[in-house]
Amino acid sequence: MFSSARPTSKNQAQSNVFFGFIRFVFLFLGLTLSSLTRSCPQESNGNLNEGIYGIKNSYAVELQEWTDHINKTKELIGNMAMDVEKQKKMKGVLKQMLAKRDDLLRNYNRTQEIILTLKLIDPVLFNEIDQIKDKEGSRVAVYVKAIDKFGEKNGIYATTNLDQCKGNENIYTSPYGDRTVSVTVNSGQEAVLLLAHEFGHVKYQVPNLAFYYKYFKETYLKDGFNPAVPGHFSKDPSRLSVKKTLTRFKRLYRQYKQDTKHTDEIFVSH
Ligand SMILES: [Zn+2]
After folding, report:
1. Nearest residue to 64 via CA among 41, 35, 88
2. Domains in the chain, number
3. Of 144, 163, 212, 261, which has the fewest CB atoms closer than 10 Å, so is most exposed?
4. Residue 2 C-alpha to ligand 1 middle, in angstroms?
5. Ligand 1: distance of its center to the CA of 242 in Å?
6. Is residue 270 scored above 80 in pLDDT?
7. Which domain holds residue 197?
8. Could you tell me if residue 223 is inside a domain?
């Protein structure tokens, strides 16, 4: 499914409060967390996900940042001559940071599992997206993020962002920077199908961005018009790309399910 909107949730609101608290403590100590709040980095290359282009696990960047900040915080606690009250406060912050990192690690692993399952089912689709180039022949990074219960409130269980770089209508941009796409899927049981669906959008939208951006605006963003799920009119070229992608993928997915069921039976028969 498609939506350019990024819905806010209670979790995000709680997260903002938490970030605010962390920022306050760091400012108190003369540090800032600017790298956690930057809006549009030129490129992101977390150590847990090598390379700049291709399919990326979105959590790798955050995980690396939190690990760096946790290490700095541990260093501060160990080295700075702080009074007992400050030490206590910092240890409390560290505990929250460690809990946040555990949460990120769980989400990172689930996202990794979904991406690798898709690769196992349909390596051709995986490679197409991993190698995807825009109209100018530049490679693009596709950031994938699986979120628990994503879309359960509005019924849109997966999204691909749609945005152009300022000054060049052929260059895709997302919160991860220029020449990047952001894909979000619900982390539930059929997440791999949702990801294949979104990759169908990515496959069309990256090389045809200038045309599709204009088409999308003229088709779905007219005054007083509010389709439930923009991007899915019958003749929408991005939707047709999804349809074609899923026709192939669902056949392979059925085969994969049969194969893995068969494997399970072999194990059970021991
Ligand atoms: Zn869609």
Report:
1. 35
2. 1
3. 261
4. 4
5. 7
6. no
7. 1-257
8. yes
